[in-house]
Queue: 3 jobs
Job 1
Amino acid sequence: MARGDTKSIVKNTTMLMFMNIATLVFPLLTLPYLTRALSTDIFGFITYVKALVAYMLSFVEFGFIISSTKRIVENIDDLDTVSTIVGDTIAAKLLLFGVSLLVVGILMLRVPVLSTDILYVFLACITVLLQIYLMDFLFRGLEMMHVIAIRYLVAKVISTGLTFVFVKGNDTILWIPLLEIFSSLLAIAWIALEMKGLGIRIAHSSFHAVLRILKHSVTYFATNIVSLSFNMLITLIVGIVLKKEDIAYWGMCMQLVIAAILLFSSLMNGVYPAMVQRKDFRIIKKEIMLCMPFIVVGCIAGYYLTPWGLGLVFGEKYVAATPVFRMLIPVILLNLPSALLGWPSLGAIGRESKNMAATIFGLSVLLLGIVVLLLTGQFTLLHAAVLRSLVELVLLLSRAFYCYRFRHEFHTEVR
């Protein structure tokens, strides 16, 4: 099968869709259980740590899921070069992990909610360290998404199943990161066998090479970390300004939103290698036209079924979060076209700086909104949700503007 052809795109996108369905299903299996087994305060703490770890992981990834994937696509027939890319990327991630660990230590001294269970926070950070060796960027570049999907499924089956066995209440929450560590170690062993079979090694070159790939990935990192800030920044402020019960409500709503987004994020990851090679905007249009009807129907159903669904799945104490989740539904509606117009479109034609500009503009709107809400004493969960949805619209319009402006650089123009 030729790389970058239609069958390859369909296969890789399907495998990533399968993985993201699993990403959606497994949290929805444990989330209702945890909301009932744990107190609201402890669930809020776990949600907050999860948000912090996501930010930490994004920093450690540093955009390598884009930049290193792109380099592997460009050198796919040279296994020695691919091995060096893998080694240098891992070395760079380890360096960034050390920095992020220091930052987490400082935050633990400043953010009260993180002092709830210091050992839990430490173990959660270890899960980030292990993620470095899961090599998603390698198998995306090789267009072997089935390796990523199967590995993820097996790891999640293990950690999710054992969660129901070991996590029984507030005094057993340490099992949550411990099970993630265990399943990650099994996945790493699996990945090592796959790499051996492909003849790919972890071949380091030099410290200067590591610095070069960090420099090369700055633009990708800046855009990704800013994009993540749309969710994480509000979450961090909620943890500082509002009470633990509000943290629990916000965390539950954001997990649902992120789960819905992940269901379709495989489209972006699946088409990116093909867009790098072909720069055919018809790929983007086809994906948007195919998926948006399902997203629209899902959003409408979600709006009307929210009170019933939250009560049934998470318990009556979480029905109070209904207005917040409803105000976050536009994020789900707009995220897919916004994401597809980002790296898969602007990044594929070498307009990374424009994608960055659009993202920074969206972040500026978010920061301005947060400052206004804080200064006026109106920072509530509902207002935060409205602001997050507004920012998603700003981001979509900004990226659409740049895609249209540079439409002649696609092999098939934006219309």
Job 2
Amino acid sequence: MVLALLPRNFHFGVFMETYQSSSSVLFILLGAIMVLAMHAGFAFLEVGTVRKKNQVNALVKILTDFGVSTVAYFFIGYSLAYGVNFFTGVDTLMEKNGFELTRFFFLLTFAAAIPAIISGGIAERAKFHPQLIATFLLVGFVYPFFESIAWNQAFGVQAWLKATYGAEFHDFAGSVVVHAMGGWIALPAVLLLGARYGRYTKDGRISAHPPSSIPFLALGAWILTVGWFGFNVMSAQTLDKISGLVALNSLMAMVGGTLVALIVGKNDPGFVHNGPLAGLVAVCAGSDLMHPIGALVVGGVAGALFVVMFTLTQNRWKIDDVLGVWPLHGLCGAWGGLAAGIFGSKALGGAGGIAFMPQLIMTCLAIGVALAGSALVYGLLKATIGLRLDQEEEYQGADLSIHKITSTPEREPNW
């Protein structure tokens, strides 16, 4: 009866294909919007952590870095990673309801997380425009180079891993490709910049710089946490591949990271609100493979790893990584890549189809690419135009030195 009402030229196969492609466009578009919102989380996490004289700079950096990332990824990075460009007519771009366009948008939000991660490490003393140049080079060239190897079979590395170890490297949502890369790229930048003036004294004392606003820090952490479910779940990229397991594993890792950070961090609110982020960073890679109990353990280990390594980095090694982006993203991301090879195995309740050695090899490769690319980019910038504000500008604060306004201008004494 229903079929009799359809027009004679109706083709059910064409209808289903259009329906599936349009559904996938909407699905991945919603994911892109959720991850785009995470950049507000990056911004407020940094705003709450830095001193008040650098809050405006944190906000402006995150937004302008996203703009530069979009240009770099649209014209260069996406093409390097996937061999796809947009230098064609609109009719071609609109094929499959414009799925490739929304896929670009989604993956752009991942790529733009690289400078957003770095921003937290170099906060309070970095020049503004050199960092924009670094963002263009990193998102346009360094990040897509490894992205193409991990997610687009470039250079035959994945094929070699499968032939040698029986499985490819698996990173469902970017523990290694995004977070480890971002954290390890940030490390040379932090080292080349050096510590903030007055942070460490010659006699070994440490000057404490507590967060300027715990509410803003918490707001940033919550925005990132909520958006992360788009980051992870929507990494399926098409509606037919969506998995509730990814959502539950993300939740369990978030909870594991939170509770362990609470205990190991001795109730410190900064650690508590970075704990869920550590867990979510770590679970990205194997969120589609692990058992939820495994995800809880992975997140818990990540929470402890962040607290311990942040403390060592700041207090013993005297590396002034302001937001702790190397331990949070670099180390927890690397742990996530390895954890996928452990807890994704059938022996530990996972789905299987994964091997530990490909995870180890590709994680080490990502770290190598990140360190080499970062050292090259930031080394050249430091040698040519310089990376950091002078001592007077830093003392005055990046808000006034760069943007000529503070976060609370109505309180200026000369008004």
Job 3
Amino acid sequence: MATTFGGPANRADQALAWNMKLISQHELSGFGGVGEGMAMQKAKDGRRILWLAHESAPKNFTAIDVTDPKNPKQVVQTELPHARVRSNSLDVVGNIMAVAYQCQQVGMKPAGVDLFDISVPESPKLISHFDASGPHSRGVHCVWFVDGKYVHMSSGAADFEPTNPNDDQFYRIIDVQNPSKPVEVGRWWYPGTRKGDSVPPPTRLKGEFDTGFRIHNVNVYPERPNRAYIGYIDGGAVILDITDKSRPKQVSIWRYSPPFNGFCHTAMPLLSQELLICSDECTKDGGVDWPKLVRVVDISTETNPQPISTFPMPAYESFAKRGGRYGAHNLHENLPVETSWRSDKIVIGTFFNAGVRAYDVSNPYQPQEVAYYVPAAPRMAPSGAIQINDCYVDDRKLVYAVDRHIGGVYILEMTV
């Protein structure tokens, strides 16, 4: 069921829980603002290392030993080269970690992807840097790296000039089979978003809700390796045929804004059910850009995606004015790696001040909320409330949820 109560939800200083139990919390040495990069490594000595990309400077990434989830221990924490770059996103395959770098302005560096050797977690070693800087590029926002061969990413490029500055990041595929020499093998951008395109630019959303026609997340799974599923922000959800990685082809675009106000963040397929779970991102405080939802889309005919339901949301009246952002954001993306829990029935996502929440989609026409955890506001939280930004579920079915600003990582046991 959805949360519909009033009073307690308005109290940001009180934790709320149903079918999720807090095991422990780690504040990351006082630098508890975490972005959208969470990955788990099984180190050669048997330890489980949770790698976290920070939301902003001064920290780059942090590693936490979560072998004993009741007693997490910091292993390493690294610095960014300057205050106007963020790492935000990372993924791990074996002992190689890919980390994204995005700058505050175009033309700055470092802007691209670093590959690290993390075989000794205490001492990450840089293998190579893939440069994505350029006169119209801020670098890389998000990476998807799950097979050890290719990094799929949201990126600018030196040779890409967008028709609108908000459209500066597009889909790029990087071959990292030789990690010391990463090389681009393919790219795709939304039609009309590059200067010189043969089609006109897409119609933009109005005013403050114009957040850009650029890629955010991309998902590619071994069960269907010839498809890329993309959240393209104001462009909606995109399905691409990547049979030939050098020439990705559009299969379909499902754009639902307007009438909604944009920012399709993640388009995660549940392939056994031929569904696409599409999450928005709330980007404004106080419910200004409500509604920011999670939608269930039928892709049994992938050239014609059709929405069939939305996840039941906690009551707007209880959370919109609780502090900070309220609405959908990241999903646990069923990463096809050894350390990730995978389910085509339970979807877990983050909702900023409404915490981390789990939904049963066994009946995709009537998704049901089955668990949630909303931490109390961390001390000195700038928004006055928790802002749960991302989540990861490991193969032990433990849920790791991170705060965007200061709270660090919350380790939870889910009982559904």
